[in-house]
Amino acid sequence: QVQLVESGGGLVQPGGSLRLSCAASGSISSIYHMGWYRQAPGKQRELVATITSGGRLNYADSVKGRFTISRDNAKNTVYLQMNSLKFEDTAVYYCNARHPLVPETYDYWGQGTQVTVSS
Fold first, then answer.
1. Which residue in 38, 64, 118, 39 sits closest to 86, CA to CA?
2. Cα 95 vs. chain centroid, distance in angstroms?
3. What is d(CA 54, CA 22) in angstroms, rounded to the nearest whole number?
4. Burial class (CB in 10 A: 0-12, 13-18, 19+), 95
5. Cα dihedral across residues 14, 45, 32, 52: positive or negative
6. Beta bridge partners of 17
7. I want to staple 73 with a disulfide (CB 3.0 to 4.6 A). Which of 7, 18, 30, 42 is the partner?
8. 111 has which bridge partners?
9. How many CA atoms lie within 13 A of 88 on its CB side?
10. Closest to 47 (Cα-Cα) out of 65, 62, 32
11. Calpha distance 71→55 (Å, rounded)
12. What is the pLDDT of residues 45-75, one digit of tens each?
């Protein structure tokens, strides 16, 4: 079993920055793909950014150039640096860990952390 705990969310003004962290524990290794997803009120959960075990990055078009995902395998932690935040970035942000070979079996989610962009 894998546990994911997000932190770093909060209230920020437009144009501000936040850094989210996701600490993984349990039966996880560096081969897991890690990612951040978000869900705004009344909307479906959507991909924000992912990083593979090999360091390949993928971003939603809406956050390219503003958000940066990174991981520290020694700490089993993945980060999301969010700059130039906009109102539309307001959402609950979820951390995800997914096994690259058996994703349908080993697919884990954190409890989420709220990010609110407001003036």
1. 118
2. 4
3. 18
4. buried
5. negative
6. none
7. 30
8. none
9. 6
10. 62
11. 8
12. 999 999 999 999 999 999 999 999 999 999 9
For tokens 């075990």, the residue is 53
* Overall residue count recorded for the chain in this entry: 119
The residue type of 60 is: A
Q: CB-hemisphere CA count at 13 Å for 51?
A: 17
Closest C-alpha among 109, 37, 25 to residue 75: 25
The stretches of the chain forming alpha helices (DSSP H) are none
Within 13 Å, how many C-alpha atoms sit on residue 76's CB side? 13
Cα distances (angstroms) measured from residue 68 to each of 3, 38, 50, 83: 23, 15, 10, 9
pLDDT in tens, 69-99: 999 999 999 999 999 999 999 999 999 999 9
